[in-house]
């Protein structure tokens, strides 16, 4: 699961910074997904250690009588622009000081390599699978790591246009295992009606939008 909307009025690219919590709308998104999953056989809930992920996981864990575990491997992708504004139309791509960090979108040069995200996310998925063997686990993470590991499993190239990610706020990307092998990937948006239209999967980013946005960045 991707976390819900974050309170970020200044439009900071928050990345791995502490102190960014769910907004009121984000909490409603988390509650909606908890209601959607109430009848599922979830025996393990684990989240990125960042506040927005922990807060998203909390109502789901509570509905199943579970505690929220933490796994560093589910954390947001690292990037050099963390703590800055880096949105569509804000001139960031024209700043000469940023150019060295944007030279290689295939790695990417501005942050954690895609393949490194795949390695840690696959390890986190396998650990959650083992913790809930024979049942279901819920992992709460962030847009870019989720999309990257899904692309790997579905045998797509890892570098991509971030506008084409299918991973909206509070969405569920489902990996089904038979034994130790992933046999299918699913996707759903239980809180779609709560997601602002410009933040939905495939939507054109609003001018100046930051937070988790930027070239190849997640949230």
Description:
With 219 residues, the protein is of the alpha/beta class. Helix 1 packs parallel to helix 2. The protein has 4 helices and 5 strands; from the N terminus they run αβαβαβαββ. The strands form 2 sheets. The chain has a 3-stranded parallel beta sheet, with helices on both faces. A two-stranded antiparallel sheet has the order 4-5. 25% of the residues lie in helices and 13% in strands.
Any descriptors?
219 residues, 4 helices, alpha/beta, two-stranded antiparallel sheet, globular, 3-stranded parallel sheet
Could you tell me how far the N terminus lies from the C terminus, measured between alpha carbons in angstroms?
12 Å
Shape: globular
Q: What average pLDDT do the residues reach?
A: 88
Which secondary-structure class do the elements indicate? alpha/beta
DSSP strand count = 5
User: Level of helix content?
Assistant: 25-40%
> What is the number of helices?
4
Describe the strand arrangement of the main beta sheet, using strand numbers.
Answer: 2-1-3
What is Rg?
17 Å
Order of helices and strands: HEHEHEHEE
Percentage of residues in DSSP E strands: 5-15%
**Biggest sheet statistics:** 3 strands, parallel
Contiguous uncertain segments of 5+ residues? none
Quick description:
The protein has 219 residues and is α/β, with parallel strands linked by helices. Helix content is 25%, strand content 13%.
Indicate the topology.
Blueprint: H1 24-36, E1 42-47, H2 51-63, E2 68-70, H3 114-131, E3 136-140, H4 143-153, E4 172-178, E5 181-188
Parallel strand pairs: 1-2, 1-3
Antiparallel strand pairs: 4-5
């Amino acid at each position: 699961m991707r976390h819900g909307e974050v309170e970020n009025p200044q439009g900071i690219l928050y990345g791995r910074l502490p102190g960014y919590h769910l907004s009121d709308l984000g909490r409603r998104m988390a509650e909606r997904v908890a209601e959607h999953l109430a009848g599922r056989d979830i025996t393990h809930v684990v989240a990125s250690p960042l506040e927005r992920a922990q807060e998203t996981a909390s109502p789901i864990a509570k509905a199943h009588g579970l505690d929220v575990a933490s796994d560093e491997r589910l954390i947001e992708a690292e990037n050099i622009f963390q703590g800055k504004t880096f949105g569509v139309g804000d001139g960031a791509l024209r700043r000469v000081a940023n150019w060295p960090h944007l030279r290689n979108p295939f790695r990417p040069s501005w942050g954690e390599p895609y393949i490194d995200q795949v390695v840690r996310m696959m390890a986190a998925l396998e650990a959650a699978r083992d913790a809930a063997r024979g049942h279901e686990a819920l992992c709460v993470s962030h847009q870019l790591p989720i999309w990257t590991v899904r692309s790997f499993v579905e045998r797509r190239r890892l570098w991509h246009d971030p506008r084409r990610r299918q991973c909206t706020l509070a969405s569920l990307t489902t990996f089904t295992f038979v034994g130790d092998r992933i046999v299918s990937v699913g996707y759903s948006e239980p809180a779609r009606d709560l997601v602002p239209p410009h933040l939905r999967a495939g939507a054109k980013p609003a001018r100046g939008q930051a937070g988790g946005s930027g070239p190849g960045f997640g949230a």
